[in-house]
């Protein structure tokens, strides 16, 4: 049993290693890219649509609705980034039904990379909506003394995103591995199905937290009236 897919090495030359985390991550990316290309190739604008297109529209509109409910008034602007995050984490969990597969989200390096994507995206969306000066002022709110605390908050929540997803995904894989070693096959199958549900929940939580951070960064704060002026 591997504690992390990093320990499963397929090829190595000196310090250069090709482990399961890299292989399965790029495999998932390939599945998402090719799948999206195939699914969107035959979309119809007519009233008569296929079941697959109806399913696709349900997924996309569902994600967009969740983004809107978080507080982002233009969900289509953030749909590409947030939707990709959700689908990647969800697919990483769904593929656990494949024998020998280990989710790359069970590696701290993968979850850290996902959290860093959120760390970069939050100020980019914030600057896009408020401008550089407007977004920079949010770090000085409500007073300039809060600047170091706001900066620490940016780093700490990124770390929390990475560790939370890594811990939940790795613990589920470890429990299933232990049960496979000490119990019959039937019970671990039930735990695997429970792990799929847990993985989907973690994908949803990661997606919602990323949306909340972006919503906070893109909120335009009203200008404070000058001292001594009428409100």
Structural class call reads mainly alpha
Low-confidence stretches: 226-231
Tell me, what's the shape?
globular
Order of helices and strands: EEHHHHHH
Evaluate the radius of gyration. Answer: 21 Å
Structure commentary:
It is built from 6 helices and 2 strands; from the N terminus they run E-E-H-H-H-H-H-H. By secondary structure, the protein is mostly helical. It has a two-stranded antiparallel sheet. A hairpin with a 2-residue loop joins strand 1 and strand 2 (16-19). Helix 1 (20-41) packs across helix 3 (75-94), helix 3 packs antiparallel against helix 6 (186-218) and helix 4 packs antiparallel against helix 5. The longest helix has 36 residues, at 147-182. Residues 226-231 have low confidence and may be disordered.
Main features:
231 residues; mainly alpha; two-stranded antiparallel ribbon; 6 helices; globular; disordered C terminus
